[in-house]
Specification:
Length: about 500
């Protein structure tokens, strides 16, 4: 089955020491289920950009580990490079890819920001869609003055106080974390060693100086060549071909030309197709004229190269397990609840509740999407526990680090199914409304949704409790236990109410 996917493109202030970059990559790939898709290091910028993909919580954990490793290995007091930067891990954007909303990515950014601030003691600033303040939406505004100025101002200037973490800068600097749409990092080199030309062209093309709407640009010197370094924040509205032609035209004005261009990281296929269509002036082109697109579209219905979730569940592998099954079952409950609502909408008999049913269907769809994401998140959380137990313990220092990692992973493995249980309780609340107001012809479907949700809460709760057993006496563990008990009590009450509603409306006595 298709799992929710999020992309993250963390930028690190190191592009000259391969051994440091390799350790950061190892920290990322130590988390099961996360793929390192691409890596780009630039010695002149002294910067590395990595692209990773995976389930939301797994990606968050991988990035956290990489931030911790970068903080150990990169000293910002010693760092020099062409690219603006604030910290060892400079910027961390989350990008929705599949079955993940921008709101989900914002929540990830906030969770990671809080964790980095509290556990690593690194100041964190939120930007783009995750920005907590309007003046921090644009990355360049957050990074203004770079590490050196922030070090001077963070303690004295209220406007520079971080969203999370200490109001003090250490040698790891600060990290900027956010959520955004796909971005193309695109650089054009000039046939010139005059960086002032690149800076003039950058000023012409960037939006903040009156240029192209979705372009951020600066002029830098890279390996003796002037470079216009750009971020294209919406390639659909400002196509890459237009950007290239504008830079090429401006270069001619200054008596030079473009030498070549490069990508940093990955690019959506659609952007390259748009460029090809633009340059070939292909009239009335449709995407299904691409052979590969037509072949993909002609696969037999239901065909998939992925192993189905149920087959994975039945295998001898420890994941997915009960927590993932709880999320899967809860997602089914949300789908059934949405179905009842949609079978009510448009019926004259239920005109008075049509608006409520439309809203209910949308809420159920949103919960289904989040619960679908929780399937992979639960597996990732359990795999992180297993990974922590595999850490070396040859000496006292290693044993101590191992214990810390086990504790953190176990706590997260309790939090994830609790979150599933809480979302499932929301599904039960919607199912109660569907049973009370929805189409009576589908009222047993509302009961099926409620019964599945109640079972899912029981299963998720078992996974919470097994992890809490290893954390006895801790305040956070006690808070999780208390939250779970509240969920259980309300779930029992809701199931009873739904049974009564069905008996009263349909005359069916359910056990």
């Amino acid at each position: 089955m298709a799992y929710p996917l999020v992309e993250c493109i963390p930028n690190y202030s190191e592009g000259r020491r391969p051994e440091v970059i390799d350790q950061i990559k190892t920290a990322i790939t130590s988390v099961p289920g996360v793929k390192l898709l691409d890596g780009h290091s630039d010695p002149d910028h002294n910067r590395t950009v990595l692209t990773i993909l995976g389930a939301p919580q797994a990606v968050k954990e991988a990035v956290f580990r990489s931030i911790r490793k970068a903080a150990e290995l990169i000293d910002m007091d010693q760092h020099q490079g062409e690219h603006p930067r604030l910290g060892a891990t400079d910027v961390v954007p989350f990008v929705p890819i599949r079955d993940v909303s921008m709101a989900d990515c914002v929540a990830l950014a906030q969770e990671l920001g809080r964790q980095v601030g509290e556990e690593l003691g690194i100041p964190v600033y939120l930007y783009e869609a995750a920005a907590a303040r309007p003046e921090r939406v644009n990355l360049e505004d957050v990074r203004r003055g770079q590490y050196e100025l922030l070090k001077e101002e963070i303690e004295s200037n209220p406007a520079r106080q971080p969203d999370f973490g200490p109001v003090k800068l250490g040698k790891a600097g600060a990290t900027i974390i956010g959520a955004r749409e796909p971005l193309i990092a695109y650089n054009i080199y000039l046939n010139s060693d005059d960086v002032s030309i690149a800076k003039k062209i950058a000023k012409t093309v960037r939006f903040s100086s009156g240029g192209l709407r979705y372009v951020k640009a600066m002029g830098v010197m890279v390996e003796g060549q002037a470079q216009v370094s750009m971020n294209l924040t919406n390639f659909r509205k400002t196509p890459i071909a237009l950007v290239y032609e504008t830079v090429a035209r401006e270069a001619q004005r200054y008596g030079t030309s473009t030498h070549h261009s490069e990508l940093v990281g990955l690019i959506p296929q659609e952007a390259l197709v748009d460029a090809a269509v633009w340059y070939t002036q292909m009239d009335q082109f449709e995407s299904d004229q691409i052979l590969e697109n037509r072949l993909n579209g002609d696969e037999p219905e239901g065909a998939s190269s992925d192993t189905s979730f149920l087959e994975e569940l039945a295998s001898a592998a420890p994941t997915p397990g009960g927590g993932s099954a709880a999320a899967f079952t809860a997602a089914e409950a949300a789908a059934l609840t949405a179905m009842v609502a949609r079978l009510t909408v448009g019926k004259k008999k239920y005109a008075e509740v049509e608006a409520q049913m439309q809203a209910l269907a949308e809420q159920a769809d949103a919960l289904r999407s989040k619960l679908n994401a929780a399937i992979a998140e639960d597996s990732a959380a359990f795999e992180a526990v297993m990974q922590a137990y595999r850490l070396p313990k040859a000496d006292e220092a290693q044993a101590g680090q191992r214990e810390i990692a086990i504790h953190a992973a176990t706590l997260e493995a309790a939090r994830v199914p609790l979150k599933t249980a809480e979302m499932t309780l929301d599904v039960m609340r919607l199912a109660e409304q569907a049973a009370a107001q929805g189409n009576t012809n589908a009222i047993t479907d509302a009961w099926s949704a409620a019964a599945l949700a109640h079972a899912a809460i029981s299963c998720a709760g078992a996974n919470v409790r097994i992890n809490l057993a290893a954390l006895t006496g801790e305040k956070e563990a006690e808070a999780i236990q208390s939250s779970l008990e509240k969920v259980d009590r309300e779930a029992d009450s809701l199931l009873k109410n739904i049974r009564e509603n069905i008996k009263n409306r349909a005359g069916i006595d359910l056990l």
